[in-house]
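sry for the spam today, last one i promise. struct tokens for design, 479 residues
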């Protein structure tokens, strides 16, 4: 057993306000500089929709991530380092500025310098790339909240998984629904960007699994950009090198939560250590598509298991990391409660940002019918406003049962709280919901506390700073 520590995150989608505070904070801290204006290391997109950059999930076009190999484990869709070298001077699988948007500012000076006149002065938008006046037609969240739009929502590639009836359900005016999907780099365990970089400039930090790009070693080949299926590596056109989310490692190393976590007013973000068995990465990444969620969970190790603790010691993990793994909210959400799921596991990068799928409000078939369905007080997966098949395409490699179980846990939690606070749900109904969700009362209580009352220090449980030890001879920095 080769035990490694990975900082992993959980985003609870029912709690996301779509306020974009996370994106703005990250922009102000990390990408507010020339060449990086169009980059949103953290972005929040409305779903269904095409996201940022537009259509980033279309791997037939971008050839990102991994595909199942011929018995020898997963293979890079882009063809690996040798193909990368061949494609250095011509790589058609790269998004252009048009796929993102042309960043702009306004000529604010015009407001101050305008001559006295009866006409109100205006600040014209100008491109931050060319400086020329620009007619603004798109932006990173231009289509925010455009549920049901034929221009935006209808072009979501995941809608392929839906039957005509389900599509109709999604676009019927009285059933319109959407949710917000915040996205950062996933700091993947089987990172395609790392595998594709011909210069070895992107690497995974041994001590905490964060994936970072070295600006000294980057030669601007951009193979990382096409190989990342999440399109979370960006090219700084001014400096000629790739950049990406760094997991706010300078903050993390000093015990501070990443900026986008600390600033999130919806308190949807949780972070903690997952221990995993590096010897089984290949096996997990090569599992059949519908088993990928379970396979990824299987390589996550139980930090309370004495054998795991002993192996962690042999692998050089300090006691403080083990202690942090035991208090990790990520471990609770991902492994204990099985309620947080990876985004597009079928790309086989083993992403380390997990999502609690959204339990949207029940669809009311007639006025007043918002209280009970045959299955309980709130909706079940089949009556969810967002079809289960859509969520399964996003979070489980197409296996609806995995998402349905997570939704049942959310339903059970709400039923139980309703019984406690309003009192119009009977104990038998609550017990039935707990049984259907495979959730015990103690876990429900902890899940409820963590998602309602927990302060930042409980939502983000960081291991002690380990950079110095990792860099020492024999340390894990190069793992
Ligand atoms: Fe690399 Fe991050 Fe993309 Fe994963 S999400 S492949 S770690 S850039
Ligand atoms: Fe940006 Fe830090 Fe959040 Fe990464 S972790 S998206 S660098 S604020
Ligand atoms: Fe707002 Fe948090 Fe959602 Fe970002 S993740 S949009 S900060 S609620």
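last one done:
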């Amino acid at each position: 057993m080769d035990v490694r520590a990975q900082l992993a995150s959980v985003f609870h989608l029912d709690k996301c306000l779509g306020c974009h505070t996370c994106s703005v904070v990250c922009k102000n801290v990390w990408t507010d500089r020339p060449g990086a204006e169009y980059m949103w290391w953290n972005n929040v997109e409305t779903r269904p929709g095409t996201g940022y950059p537009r259509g980033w999930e279309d791997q037939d076009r971008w050839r990102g991530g991994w595909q199942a190999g011929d018995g020898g484990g997963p293979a890079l869709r882009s063809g690996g380092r040798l193909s990368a070298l061949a494609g250095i001077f011509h790589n058609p699988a790269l998004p252009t500025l048009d796929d993102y948007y042309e960043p702009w500012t306004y000529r604010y000076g015009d407001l101050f310098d305008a001559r006295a006149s009866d006409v109100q002065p205006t600040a014209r938008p100008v491109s931050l790339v060319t400086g020329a006046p620009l007619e603004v037609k798109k932006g990173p969240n231009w289509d925010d909240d455009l549920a049901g739009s034929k221009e935006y929502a209808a072009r979501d590639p995941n809608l392929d998984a839906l039957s005509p009836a389900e599509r109709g359900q999604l676009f019927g005016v009285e059933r319109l629904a959407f949710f917000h999907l915040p996205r950062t780099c996933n700091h993947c365990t089987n990172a395609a960007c790392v595998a594709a970089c011909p210069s070895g400039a992107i690497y995974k930090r041994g001590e905490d699994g964060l994936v970072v790009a070295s600006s000294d070693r980057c030669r601007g080949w951009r193979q990382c950009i096409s190989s990342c299926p999440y399109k979370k590596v960006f090219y700084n056109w001014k400096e000629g090198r790739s950049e990406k989310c760094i997991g706010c490692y300078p903050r993390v190393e000093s015990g501070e939560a990443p900026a986008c976590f600390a600033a999130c007013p919806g308190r949807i973000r949780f972070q903690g250590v997952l221990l995993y068995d590096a010897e089984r990465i290949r096996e997990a990444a090569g599992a059949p598509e519908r088993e990928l969620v379970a396979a990824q969970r299987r390589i996550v190790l139980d930090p309370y298991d004495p054998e795991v603790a002993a192996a962690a010691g042999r692998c050089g993990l300090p006691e403080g990391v083990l202690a942090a793994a035991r208090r990790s909210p990520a471990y609770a959400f991902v492994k204990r409660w099985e309620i947080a799921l990876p985004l597009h596991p079928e790309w086989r990068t083993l992403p380390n940002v997990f999502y609690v799928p959204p339990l949207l409000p029940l669809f009311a078939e007639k006025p007043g019918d918002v209280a009970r369905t045959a299955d309980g007080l709130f909706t079940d997966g089949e009556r969810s406003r967002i079809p289960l098949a859509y969520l399964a395409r996003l979070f489980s490699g197409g296996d609806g049962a995995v998402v349905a179980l997570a939704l049942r846990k959310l339903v059970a939690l709400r039923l139980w709280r309703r019984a406690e606070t309003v009192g119009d749900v009977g104990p038998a109904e609550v017990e039935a919901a707990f049984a259907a969700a495979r959730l015990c009362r103690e876990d429900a209580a902890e899940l409820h506390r963590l998602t309602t009352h927990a302060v930042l220090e409980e939502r983000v449980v960081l291991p002690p700073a380990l950079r110095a030890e990792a860099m020492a001879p024999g340390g894990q920095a190069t793992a």
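Residues 364-377 have pLDDT under 50 and may be disordered. ok im logging off now
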